[in-house]
Amino acid sequence: MGPFPIVTERMLLREFCPEDALSIHAFASDAEVTRHTSWGPNDLTTTRSVLERWILDQMEWPRTSVPLAIELRSSGKLIGSTGFASIESSTGLFGFVLRRDCWGIGLATEASQALIGFGFKQLGLHRVAAECFVEQNASIRIFEKLGMRREAHFVRNAWKSEIWRDTYLYALLRDEWDQSC
Q1: DSSP bridge partners of 97
Q2: How far apart are CA 6 and CA 92, in angstroms?
Q3: Cα–Cα dist 86/38, whole Å
Q4: 40: left (phi over 0), alpha (psi -120 to 50) or beta
Q5: Rounded to two decimals, what is the model's pTM?
Q6: Domains detected in the chain
Q7: Residue 103 to residues 42, 112, 145: CA-CA distances in angstroms?
Q8: Alpha-helical regions (H) of 58-147
């Protein structure tokens, strides 16, 4: 097991457990929530299958991916997920997703800030990166608040909802992070 949970002012970023299935499915099956993700909306079978894979992956450390539950400290409720979808060549590709009722109050920024710090300090990453659809203004604002820079605009590289969509790639180097903290 890894060095979890990661504690922020309002949240715990923790490993997933089997009891999380229905809480995950509440946001993973929501078409509005998954509109800006590369996956979903999920049926319950898909959500359970993904959760099983994540739990199996947790048995190994170090890992090439680190998916984490986002839990509110005040209520103990799972409200989303974050983590590194892949870790390769000292670069961690991260993302986040939150229930709709948790949008717009800084939780994604707070979780991402903690995750990035964990990636640089505990995982020894050299670089973190994130990708989003070009129309995903909320994520773009979060990446920019975190000090990330837009490194690329990929044209029609992501297939979602029966259409090819453009994405932006944002990144931040460890020394840039160290200077901003």
Answers
A1: 81
A2: 17
A3: 14
A4: left
A5: 0.93
A6: 6-128 (3.40.630.30)
A7: 20, 14, 16
A8: 107-121, 137-145
